[in-house]
Amino acid sequence: MFGYGDRVSYDTEALRNIYPQKSLWRRWNSLSRFQKNLISLTMVGVFVCVFIFVSMDMSSGLPGVNMANRLPDWRDQNILDLSYPNASNKFLGPLGPPVVGFNKDESVKRGDIRPLSREEEEEQIRVGEIPQKKEDQVVSKPKKLMFSGPKNEKQEAVVSAFRHAWKGYSEYAWGHDHLKPVSRTYNDWFTLKLTMIDSLDTIYIMGLNEEFDKAKAHLQSEFRLDINKDVNVFETTIRVMGGLLSAYHLSGDEFFLEKALDLGNRLMPAFNTAWGVPWADINLNTLKPHPPSWNSDSTTSEVTTIQLELRDLTRCTGINTFENAGAKVSEHIHTLQKKDGLVPIFISPMNGEFRKHSTITLGARGDSYYEYLLKQWIQTGMTVDYLKEDYIDSVSGMVKHLFKRSGPSGYLFVGELASGGSDFRPKMDHLVCFLPGTLALGTLFGMPQEHLRLAEELIHTCYKTYAIQPTGLAPEITHFNLQKDADSDFVVKSNDAHNLLRPETIEGLWYMYYVTKNTTYQDWAWEIFQAFEKYTKVTHGYTSIGNVKSTTQTKPLDKMESFFLGETLKYLYLIFADNGVEGPLDLNKFVFNTEAHPLPIYNS
Ligand SMILES: *[C@@H]1O[C@H](CO)[C@@H](O)[C@H](O)[C@H]1NC(C)=O
Ligand SMILES: *[C@@H]1O[C@H](CO)[C@@H](O)[C@H](O)[C@H]1NC(C)=O
């Protein structure tokens, strides 16, 4: 076994200076016969020992060095005690020096890596050990919250839709990641039961107690995290850790926290880089992190959209490692140079720098960086000033560089800057429609009223991207015309005409209704819900469609994304609650993660 905690430095130059070289052969010849025999015997002995050790490891059922098996089994533990099994109180992360050298072309040199300070070295080593709860740490324990189910016809209609989706999932994809409702089968992306876990809190909030208990029972017997699969750190954090933590906060059931903690430990090795910027992917069994196959860099929004979940895990367990790992990324990115608060979409885990000439966008790979600046600030009781300042700067940057009006109607929309920020493109992903919701949320916490005016205009534009289409459903990407005399404001290319049942516009409508109480937002949400019912509902669930531009050729894509149940239907249910507030889910007490999982707001 290698001592993974040891930090061995191979400075061969220095070694040569200390030990002048002498040929091995000459040294061997200068030894006495007894010395030669002793050395030979020792070497044979060492060889035999190593052989025995390795075969024992195999025979105990471990495929070679199976790091994950060294993880403690939480099931036997009283989780709130958080005492770790002492027999093996370490697990193997990719420890020692920061992980380097994933680039096959070796173009990244070791010298690019900044040497670690002493403090950071200690922190790095800590990342690989089973973290300990500090004695004086206050751990927040949730009380079980009660929800009484739908209170009006619209909420009932949304619950029926959820039941319909859940029935298809239960029958044809139970325990798998995604339902394929047309072919009546399933698809596994990470093999982490994504739809089930993403749905837990929606089920709970809708008051579907039987369904909740059934899902929980399944998870208790079948949910394993030590699967030999490469998963995306961000997706796994927002969907699985976020889903488990919110299920814990709502139901008070410690089982969910146990699982979140197991997952947290398995994700930590990805953060073992020079600047703490995590690798995009990690294998949950071998605990080996790596970049995705198509890219050596990590995605900016991914590395900055894990902090709410990691902080909450720390606050629930008293183990600081998780919050620290997340905060380190945010603090590092805070120090990097930006374009009026706007960030490029790629960042290197090797040297901690943004990739030059990468796009600036509020859409894919940029979006939730901005969202989590605000939401982290809210989660920490508005006590972390740099988050607020960076958020305000970024909104100014958006207004300056990304917001434009379309022709002929003058809709406000959010474009992109390509080529490192010089080339404006009037292209807006549906994902960008998270922005009005975030802007509106900020105004509940004292952000300028100007943000709400921007949000009002943007949510109107997002709504229009639905209303203008024959199906009443928005495409994945809309292009805008900039000429005042254009025929239409919107241009949709056929490659972009799909709808994946995404939540962002419904999410924005909920925040807008919650903040303004203007019932127009409920009306718009109802219209969109009707369009989902009409064009995406199939016998065994709901399906993404390939074409929103035709009512007869919608081209079902045979996939029901987990976020349809986790987010879209949840936000629809919430917007039809009186004043948009469902039971105890008050936005002064809870902040929703980017996958719509509510987490508590803390004082600091
Ligand atoms: C582990 O800790 C428990 C209680 O603290 C103790 O009784 C037990 O002997 C320890 N086991 C080992 C292997 O050290
Ligand atoms: C509600 O919002 C709609 C859409 O933005 C707007 O036209 C209407 O004037 C608003 N109603 C009130 C009472 O503010």
TrEMBL record:
Listed pathway(s): Protein modification; protein glycosylation
Function comment: Involved in glycoprotein quality control targeting of misfolded glycoproteins for degradation. It primarily trims a single alpha-1,2-linked mannose residue from Man(9)GlcNAc(2) to produce Man(8)GlcNAc(2), but at high enzyme concentrations, as found in the ER quality control compartment (ERQC), it further trims the carbohydrates to Man(5-6)GlcNAc(2).
Swiss-Prot/TrEMBL cofactor(s): Ca(2+)
UniProt-recorded Gene Ontology molecular function terms: calcium ion binding; mannosyl-oligosaccharide 1,2-alpha-mannosidase activity
Listed transmembrane segments: 37-56
Family assignment from sequence similarity: Belongs to the glycosyl hydrolase 47 family.
GO cellular component assignments: endoplasmic reticulum membrane
Binding site for Ca(2+): 594
Keyword Cell cycle: no
UniProt entry tagged with the keyword Metal-binding: yes
Catalytic activity reported: N(4)-(alpha-D-Man-(1->2)-alpha-D-Man-(1->2)-alpha-D-Man-(1->3)-[alpha-D-Man-(1->2)-alpha-D-Man-(1->3)-[alpha-D-Man-(1->2)-alpha-D-Man-(1->6)]-alpha-D-Man-(1->6)]-beta-D-Man-(1->4)-beta-D-GlcNAc-(1->4)-beta-D-GlcNAc)-L-asparaginyl-[protein] (N-glucan mannose isomer 9A1,2,3B1,2,3) + 4 H2O = N(4)-(alpha-D-Man-(1->3)-[alpha-D-Man-(1->3)-[alpha-D-Man-(1->6)]-alpha-D-Man-(1->6)]-beta-D-Man-(1->4)-beta-D-GlcNAc-(1->4)-beta-D-GlcNAc)-L-asparaginyl-[protein] (N-glucan mannose isomer 5A1,2) + 4 beta-D-mannose; N(4)-(alpha-D-Man-(1->2)-alpha-D-Man-(1->2)-alpha-D-Man-(1->3)-[alpha-D-Man-(1->3)-[alpha-D-Man-(1->2)-alpha-D-Man-(1->6)]-alpha-D-Man-(1->6)]-beta-D-Man-(1->4)-beta-D-GlcNAc-(1->4)-beta-D-GlcNAc)-L-asparaginyl-[protein] (N-glucan mannose isomer 8A1,2,3B1,3) + 3 H2O = N(4)-(alpha-D-Man-(1->3)-[alpha-D-Man-(1->3)-[alpha-D-Man-(1->6)]-alpha-D-Man-(1->6)]-beta-D-Man-(1->4)-beta-D-GlcNAc-(1->4)-beta-D-GlcNAc)-L-asparaginyl-[protein] (N-glucan mannose isomer 5A1,2) + 3 beta-D-mannose
GO biological process annotation, one example: response to endoplasmic reticulum stress
Disulfide partners: 433-462
Location of the active site: 235 (proton donor), 367, 476 (proton donor), 504
Keywords: Calcium, Disulfide bond, Endoplasmic reticulum, Glycosidase, Hydrolase, Membrane, Metal-binding, Signal-anchor, Transmembrane, Transmembrane helix
Enzyme class of the recorded protein, top EC level: hydrolase
Matching Pfam families: Glyco_hydro_47 (PF01532)
Protein name: alpha-1,2-Mannosidase
Membrane topology of this protein: Single-pass type II membrane protein
